[in-house]
Amino acid sequence: MNHLHINSNKKWKYRFFILITGQSISVIGSTAVQFSVIWWLSTLTASPMVLAYAGLAAYVPQILTIIFVSYCRRNGMSLSMKCFTPGF
User: Fold this and answer.
1) What is the tally of structural domains in the chain?
2) Residue-wise pLDDT tens digits, 61-77
């Protein structure tokens, strides 16, 4: 039994490493695309207003997500259906 427990522990670490590596590559790619779209819009239009709106459209969803997650964690809620039920 002890041998099986050690193997499952190694599998867990390997799966976690694969998952976190994939997520890291995904975040880097998404950030690069976000930055390049803002850069492209600013060079295409040469308008500071378009640059400001593109920056807001890119980063406001991230800021709102951070606020929501921190609210749920501060109130001791897991990020499950508890946060999505009415009257939480």
Assistant:
1) 1
2) 889 988 988 887 777 66
